[in-house]
Amino acid sequence: MSALIKSSIARKVVMALSGLFLVLFLLLHLTINLSSVINPDIFNQWSHFMGYNPLVQYLMQPILIAGVVVHFVMGIVLELQNNRARTVKYAQFKGSANASWVSRNMIISGLVVLAFLGLHFYDFWIHEMAYKYVEVNPQDPTRYYAETVEKFEPIWRTVIYVVSFILLSMHLWHGFASSFQSMGLNNKYTPNLKKFTKVYALIVPLGFVFIALYHHLNPLTH
Amino acid sequence: MAVLDSKIPTGPLAEKWTKHKNEIDLVNPANKRNIDIIIVGTGLAGGSAAATLAELGYNVKTFCYQDSPRRAHSIAAQGGINASKNYQGDGDSDYRLFYDTIKGGDYRSREANVYRLAEVSGNIIDQCVAQGVPFAREYGGLLDNRSFGGVLVSRTFYAKGQTGQQLLLGAYGAMNRQIQRGKIKSHTRHEMLDLVLIDGKARGIIARDLISGEIERHSAHAVVLATGGYGNVFYLSTMAMGCNVTAAWRAHRRGAFFANPCFTQIHPTCIPVSGDHQSKLTLMSESLRNDGRIWVPKRKEDTQAIREGKLKPTELKEEDRDYFLERRYPAFGNLVPRDVASRAAKERCDAGFGVNKTGEAVYLDFSSAIARYGNEKALTSGIKNPDKDTVTKLGKEIIAAKYGNLFQMYEKIVDENPYNTPMMIYPAVHYTMGGLWVDYNLQTTIPGCYSAGEANFSDHGANRLGASALMQGLADGYFVLPYTIGDYLSDDIQTGPISTDSPEFEEVEKGIKERIDRLMSGSGKHSVDYYHKKLGKIMWNKCGMSRNAEDLKSAIDEIAALRKDFWENVKVTGGKQGMNTELEKAGRVSDFLELGELFAKDALQRNESCGGHFREEYQTPEGEALRDDENFKYVAAWEYKGEPKDAVLHKEELVYENIKVKTRSYK
Amino acid sequence: MNLHLKIWRQQNANSKGKMVDYPISGVESDMSFLEMLDVLNESLINKGEEPIAFDHDCREGICGTCSLMINGEPHGPDRLITACQLHMRKFKDGDTIVIEPFRAKAFPVIKDLIIDRTAFDRIQQAGGYISVNTSGNTVDANAIPIEKHKADEAMDAATCIGCGACVAACKNASAMLFTSAKVSQFSLLPQGRVEATERVQNMVRQMDLEGFGNCTNTGACEVECPKGISLENIARMNREYLMATSKG
User: Fold this and answer.
1) I need a labelling partner for B527 at 20 to 30 A (CA). Which of A5, C7, C130, C237 fits?
2) Residue C78 touches chain A, beta carbons under 8 Å
3) Pair C207, C142 in one domain
């Protein structure tokens, strides 16, 4: 087993699987968030369910966190290993001639998204944990909408969110289809998968951008 | 005959090899572990021999100047490999392959060797398929064949235009398997500089580590030289830049006879020379002559107009073109053997019909094939009355499927699209039939020194047929040498390891070191390439596609003078230690400068025209080669006696018992 | 035409190298790139300087010896060719051309532009073959019919010339395209299936040991490969590897 996890291909498969899992999670996240634009009540209901359902809290949440951790830890491990594979750098390296910027710079888009996750966790998850387990407040199924919209009031946070989603889009643009290649799937469906990847990589982050901008432009009336 | 014993087994031709294998001594498996064999050169012949000998249990040490055995120049063979499988059911047989090869070689090769070659040819294909060589296949899943020059059957197996590559990689894989098992010790970036004899037997080599510059001693019970051909004596050839004669020449100087050095193949379809800076010529596979038609304009004024760019070849009407091969050789047409095709092209160019700026090119035209295939494809696709554009489009697709990689290669080099305008081609030095003289067992005249593949002289006589080089290399390496060498080594089972601390090794190493010192102490007037190019010019102009006594005599003098100049004035930069590519080249060129002279001397003594050797004095009124079987039906084997001019000729008479010697005709 | 060359010079593996400027004039457009270097070397020799050491042999794009990084791309700006097939007509008068060796930790520099690619040989030695003896006592070649398209696909993978452009082009110096080409060739053929499990595991293990980087599917290797070896081979190797691993 230890030999397996040292193998480059196995590590890439771990990246691919954790990445795909996160891709799926994004869709769920987006669906719930979109409800905040459509109907605050539904958003509150869904959020409450996610916040207090034991299955979500004690099974899915740890899995999600593990997925994120595995993805970024492995990503950094691989990046360091890749850097060591070329100790003397080229005086001139024309990467743009044969590969896209996004595919060559997954570490940049990845680290930006990771940094964003820090803020995002601070904004929502830490707050949520404190509310529930530190302060031990009673359940309030109506608080989520207001808390969310409030967050987008300052322009700086909205800008950070929007920029991060653009980087997320880039990360997905390469990463989604690439994960299939890593798992050994490259066949007649691949061209269509690549098209789908591009659509997905645009639509999902765009959805998040839209939500962020919508709430920023439609603040709560106190 | 006292000196040269070809050791051809007695008995009927078809049974000689089997009988011989049954009669020769073997080494038992336990004893093989105590026997070391050095193999110099790891192309098709050396690589396959190394793999098989290691499988049998011998300890093998291989040497090559390349950074990996996978880069040997066998890799550049494009068209295919012959085998008398008769998969096409067109009447092929071992005898027919044997016959075609002897005839193609213009009756200057040994019957028994060639028959053995034909006999094992089928095994090669079986073996290579088992190794995973991806030969071309038909839709039914069986192996496909194509035709090559000089034969009337389809017996050539191929892997796109990269057959040599695939076969070499097969042998390389087999070698790798033995390297992994520890049975082969591979020394890459090493060049053999001399052969060490102990008590008259080959017992080791002196090699230079091309990275560190160290001079190393390596011992063994037998030494196999599979170092390829010496075509680079012409400077410009289709050989790789590093191909050289050094190993073979060093063995020659130590007592191995050099056979038929003047038998050199000039391949008709190469990309013409473009300028003085040219370093190498590129071959366009003979398979192109399956579909390409060779022509020049009929009228000189058209030729002139084409050269000046006023007329495009595609604009010249059909009746104004001279398809000279079809005209002169109606039976074989564009698929005459290489020597015949080359000479015919030279004849037209010398007569002033050459179509490029220098007047040294003829056309190889695919437009009729494109039209033919296009019409066929239109019919099978159910297109009725197709217009010309459709036919051309369909035809080009078929041509691209067959020769796409060659067309792409041509376009990259010449910057013209051969789908739209005919290719320009001209003959170039391609293969050397001559080489170290070997007996039936592939042993040279030095006991324990063997030679395989292009490095020996054995199978192709005065001209090699297409797709036969790969066949010979693998036959020698996989199927012949591993058995015949056992006969010799069976006497060595109690010899024990050969020490490299003997006076013999000491002395040869000292000689090599002095030689390197001498190379590095020239006055420094001219670079190594300067001399190599000069030698090449002499060889091409005076010992090339057609030769005459006067030119050959002056070539001998000029080469001797050039050699003297070389040793006095060559400039070798850098030092003895570490990598020094100039020093490597200097050593090789110094040997070419000796071989070149022997080459001319050999051509001068052979007062006949046969195969690739064309003497202007000996031709029919129509300009065809005039062979002299009465006086020259022999192998010329040269013994080294100091200077090339002092070399002594020994003749091995060729005996034809199973084939009627007649004038080769492709009309 | 006149050109300005910037070339990596390094005396040996242990010394420090540097880029050196060489102006060159009189370059003709129908010269090959290596012939242009020949001209430069001739002039250096005549000046008593050591010529630039670069690897080359067949000069017709098949041996895989030449290994130049030209203006930041392996084998230069043209596609589907090796450096020896690159012609000077691809450049303009006054151009600056940067020439470096292929760079990877697994490909240490030997001298100037010459690198050590024996790591590739060791990967092949780990399993790049079918373990049959070369005795010739095998079944008849036509006893194993192989679907034409599979044979063709195997051939496409087998055309790899082992030049290392894939490693040179890869931002991670990964050798996946090289390794996968051989794994693919044999996994597509019935003769090769027999030991497919061991082959892919052994070759991948050796590839990792040599210190090549990981594949991040940028596709640079496929674009720069002089033989156009497809990324599909990497996917196939990944698949083979996963299957082999699941078998244990």
Assistant:
1) C7
2) no
3) yes
For position C247, what pLDDT does the model report?
82
Domain count, chain C: 2
Q: Which of B529, B274, B215, B294 is nearest to B410 (CA)?
A: B274
Distances (CA, A) of B240 to B243, B260, C66: 5, 22, 12
Measured distance CA(C198)–CA(A183) in Å, rounded: 19
Q: Searching chain C, which residue's CA lies closest to the CA of residue A99? A: C220
Please tell me if residue A126 touches chain C, with a CB cutoff of 8 Å.
no
Nearest-angstrom CA–CA distance, C180 and B519 = 45
Mutation target to probe the A interface, by most A beta carbons within 10 A, among C21, C216, C229, C232 is C216
Of C63, C114, C129, the CB nearest to B240: C63
Chain A residues with CB-CB distance to C232 below 8 A: 186-187
Residue B201 phi/psi, 5-degree rounding, is: -110, 145
CB C56 to CB B241 under 8 A?
Answer: yes
Which residue out of C16, C103, C123, C214 would a mutagenesis test of the A interface target, given it has the greatest number of A Cβ atoms within 10 Å?
C214
Q: Which of the other chains make 3 or more beta carbon contacts under 8 angstroms with chain C?
A: A, B
Asked if C239 is an interface residue toward chain B (Cβ–Cβ < 8 A), one would say no
Q: Among A138-147, B119-128, B269-278, which range has the highest average pLDDT?
A: B119-128
Which of C167, C232, C238 should be substituted to probe chain A, the one whose Cβ sees the most A Cβ atoms within 10 Å?
Answer: C238
Task: Say what the alpha-carbon torsion angle C151, C153, C157, C158 is, to the nearest 10 degrees.
Answer: 20
- Is B627 annotated in the active site? no
Domain boundary among C60, C78, C111: C111
Strands (E), C40-117: 68-70, 73-74, 96-101, 109-111, 114-115
pLDDT confidence of residue B151: 87
What are the extents of the domains in chain A?
A: 2-10+22-74+101-217
Of C85, C111, C137, the residue that ends a domain is C111
To the nearest whole number, what is the mean pLDDT of chain A?
94
- Kindly state whether residues C92 and C143 are assigned to the same domain: no
Residues of the domain holding C175: 117-247
Q: Is C5 on the interface with A (CB under 8 A)?
A: no
Confidence of residue A45 (pLDDT cuts 50, 70, 90): very high
Nearest residue, CB atoms, B574 vs list C30, C31, C50? C50
CATH no., domain B502-633: 1.20.58.100
What is the residue-averaged pLDDT of chain B?
95
- The stretches of B450-579 forming alpha helices (DSSP H) are 469-474, 481-489, 503-520, 528-543, 549-569
- Lookup: tokens for B610: 């046969």
Q: In chain A, what residues touch C208 (CB-CB under 8 Å)?
A: 6-8
Q: Residue C37 and residue C32: Cα distance in Å, rounded?
A: 9
Nearest one of C6, C4, C20, C8 to C114, comparing CA atoms: C8
Reported as a pLDDT band with limits 50, 70 and 90, residue B1 is very low
User: Do residue C118 and residue B140 have CB atoms under 8 angstroms apart?
Assistant: no
Query: Domain with C48 in it: what CATH number?
Result: 3.10.20.30
The domain locations on chain B are 267-429, 502-633
- CATH tag for B267-429 (out of 3.90.700.10, 3.30.70.60, 3.30.2420.10, 3.40.50.1000): 3.90.700.10
C-alpha dist (Å) from residue A67 to A72, A124, C161: 9, 18, 40
Neighbouring-strand partners of residue C206? none
Maximum distance among all Cα pairs of chain C, rounded to whole angstroms:
63
CATH number at residue C197: 1.10.1060.10
Give the CA distances from residue B317 to residues B291, B419, B586, in Å, rounded to whole numbers and listed in that order: 20, 18, 51
Question: Smallest Cα–Cα separation from C1: which of C81, C75, C113, C90?
Answer: C90
Active-site residue, from B338, B547, B563, B627: B338
